[in-house]
């Protein structure tokens, strides 16, 4: 692949990424409009035609690894597992 071809691909990639970001911002705006309406109606679930819209509180438990490491460094080291990942970017 030539440099000009790669440049074109990178440019197209960045343009698509920008379009996706713009669409995600529009999606967030619509999401918050629905949430405001649900709050106004004091509803966790609404029917809108063929759609069911839900906005519910979910509670979960997560391990506070920073506190575990600070309070019990030896135990943290015993159960700590290193992982490897890759990162791709076009700047």
Task: Explain this structure.
By secondary structure, this protein is mostly helical. The protein has a domain at 3-61. Helices cover 58% and strands 9% of the residues. It has helices at residues 3-41, 65-71, 73-79; strands at 45-48, 51-54. The protein has a two-stranded antiparallel ribbon with strand order 1-2. Helix 2 crosses helix 3 (73-79). The two termini are 19 Å apart. 0% of the residues are buried.
SS-based class? mainly alpha
Q: Spans with pLDDT under 50 lasting ≥5 residues?
A: none
Give the terminus-to-terminus CA distance: 19 Å
Q: Which radius of gyration do the C-alpha atoms yield?
A: 23 Å
Strand order, largest beta sheet:
1-2
Number of helices: 3
Order of helices and strands: HEEHH
What sort of overall outline do the alpha carbons produce when their principal axes are compared?
A: flat
Helix content: 55-70%
Oligomer class: single chain
> Hey, roughly how much beta strand do the residues contain?
5-15%
- Record field, number of beta strands: 2
Largest sheet: 2 strands, antiparallel
Average of pLDDT:
96
